[in-house]
Amino acid sequence: MMLSGGPPSRKAGFQTQPANQDNIIETSQKRRTRALSDAANSLRCLTIPGCYPTIRCSDGAEPMKIPVSRTYEQQSFCTGDLAAQAKESKCLVYSFGINDNTEWEEKIAKQFGCDVFAFDPTSSFKQDVAPGVTFYQLGLQGAGVDVSKTHSVSYDALDPKKLKTLGEIFKLMGHEGRKLDILRLDCEGCEWGVLKQLACSGESQLVKQLMVEMHFQSNLGLSSEDDVLVAADAITCLESERWAIASLEKSGCGPKDAQYTQSALKFMRDPYMLLYTTMKRLPEDARWSWDIHGDYIQEDSVQLAFFAQHYGRYGQDASKWPENLKNKYDELGKKKGDIQNMYRSLYGEFWRPEYKTYQLFPIQQD
User: Fold this and answer.
1) What distance in Å separates the CA atoms of residue 259 and residue 5, rounded to the nearest whole number?
2) What pTM value is reported for the model?
3) Reduced to 3 states, what is the DSSP secondary structure of residue 163?
4) Among 183, 154, 187, 152, which Cα is nearest to 170's?
5) Which of 51, 65, 114, 231 could form a disulfide with 91, with the two C-beta atoms 3.0–4.6 Å apart?
């Protein structure tokens, strides 16, 4: 018998058993396997158009590319957003991973009049590299990934002393109090740790548009299963910080770089996949697309139920129903239209996925 308020008595047959080390290890392995599976699912959603949250450019126009001679490096972004900012005040752009070419940065400075800062720890440009473009031999160090050890076979190894966080670079440049109109990342793997640090710390609110070349290869950023977890953390935090995709374009890596961890292979869509991804933050007072779409589904079901209630008596042409019923049916339709308009203002054309219809198997008749 156990006395109330006291611990179990050994005489009563209660004994504390030592933890089984094998069970602890097995449980830990199962948790890691589940975490890696969840991470692969998060990254798979990112790579599938329409799965991860999307957003329109502020002016409602489609994203556009700045033409450059290396056409495979052209990436779309909300040019109208940048142009609008340039009319109000001096726009600010950071571009990381320029390698040996500043053509994009020069055109941004000339076309939009922005203060453009170019960074690459492996390049050796002079500081005033071009009109409106200032160069620094620095790179980005993010959270959870040592990017000094993750670099393409096409590039030199990185000096860890030249890697700084975005916040540190902001202070070094004297840009406290300003916002980055564009943060462009083409840094051969630094993007996952940088995105995690930015989004999970809340620093991403310093940025208006993110232009990221996303690498999934083992020597370009996802060199281990732990790196896959970091990348998934970054995506999860970006969504929590209300970042959505404005443009998603597929590109490719070189054959020498096409090597992957086992977890990465679970979401890769082709052997050389890279993604040019441009993101914007959804305004705080705006609703996610799936919330609005859910409202549409609800109102659509209400209107359909109303139709089903009355069409048997008054016919399938609701315009010929009695006036009070016709007005009610139209009112329900207007609610659906209002929801569609709300959706279009943020996300573009109202879109619902359709399922494919397959042919019947030909059964031989006796």
Assistant:
1) 61
2) 0.82
3) strand
4) 183
5) 114
